[in-house]
Specification:
single chain, globular, 0% strand, mainly alpha, 69% helix
């Protein structure tokens, strides 16, 4: 799927729209994912559009407050996939929400520039 097909047909939220805008070269202040549901839309964008690490790196360079999320993308992906595999029964046990709150705090300290 292309980025343009995704923005029209995909399941989008403000954080995934932010990623899309940066990758399209559109200036945005956007927002970050706040919880596993927000991350799920970002994850589906990355998987569905074959977003590469260099693309993720562009997001953290363009919007520095995304850096904690991009730096932990692999871990978040592993947690998301494990939770999804288990139908989110053990999501609190696995700790994805808690990790995302830590990343949010770190991101807030960076702020928007």
């Amino acid at each position: 799927m292309t980025l343009n097909e995704w923005i029209v047909n995909g399941r989008v939220g403000i954080s995934s729209k932010t990623m899309w805008a940066v990758l399209q070269g559109i200036e945005t202040s956007g927002d970050k994912p706040y919880d596993p549901d927000d991350f799920s839309r970002c994850y589906k964008l990355v998987k569905g559009c074959n977003i590469l690490q260099e693309d993720l790196d562009k997001i953290s360079r363009t919007l520095p407050y995304w850096k904690p999320y991009i730096d932990n993308w692999q871990k978040l992906t592993e947690m998301y996939e494990q939770n999804d595999k288990e139908n989110w029964v053990n999501s609190k046990k696995i700790g994805m929400y808690e990790l995302m709150q830590e990343l949010r705090t770190e991101s807030d300290l960076i702020g928007r520039k």
